[in-house]
Amino acid sequence: GRPDRLAGFRRSTIRLGGNEYPIIHPAADGMVDGVVLEVTPAELRRIDAYETSAYRRTRVRLVSGMEAWVYRA
């Protein structure tokens, strides 16, 4: 993966089924550090099937200028 940053979001956690999981949500002054992973369309479909309705897949532009999918609140 390649390190990058996402402006306008903040990382927090949500509780699902008694466990805490990371999630990002919009925050005007926020910045999230992360890693860009390249996945195939088939892998993306599997990830979509895995994530619960608590997450929404959204296309974003990263600080580097690259577009990416993120799963957010």
What's the SSE blueprint?
Layout (H helix, E strand, L loop, with lengths): L1 E15 L2 E18 L4 H10 L5 E6 L5 E6 L1
Antiparallel strand pairs: 1-2, 3-4
What does this structure look like?
This protein has one helix at residues 41-50, and strands spanning 2-16, 19-36, 56-61, 67-72. A two-stranded antiparallel sheet has the order 1-2. It has a two-stranded antiparallel ribbon with strand order 3-4. Helices cover 14% and strands 62% of the residues. The protein is mostly beta strands. The protein is globular and about 35 Å long. The chain has a single domain (2-72), classed as Hypothetical upf0131 protein ytfp (Roll).
Entry keywords:
mainly beta, Hypothetical upf0131 protein ytfp, 73 residues
Structural class, judged by helices and strands?
mainly beta
Q: H/E element string?
A: EEHEE
Classify the fold: give the CATH topology: Hypothetical upf0131 protein ytfp
Distance between the termini: 23 Å
Radius of gyration: 13 Å
Order of adjacent strands in the largest pleated sheet: 1-2
Overall pLDDT score? 97
User: Would you report the number of β strands?
Assistant: 4
Biggest sheet, open or closed, and with what strands and sense? 2 strands, antiparallel
How many DSSP H or I helices?
1
Helix content: 10-25%
Question: What's the short version?
Answer:
The protein has 73 residues and is mostly beta strands. Helices cover 14% and strands 62% of the residues. The longest helix has 10 residues, at 41-50.
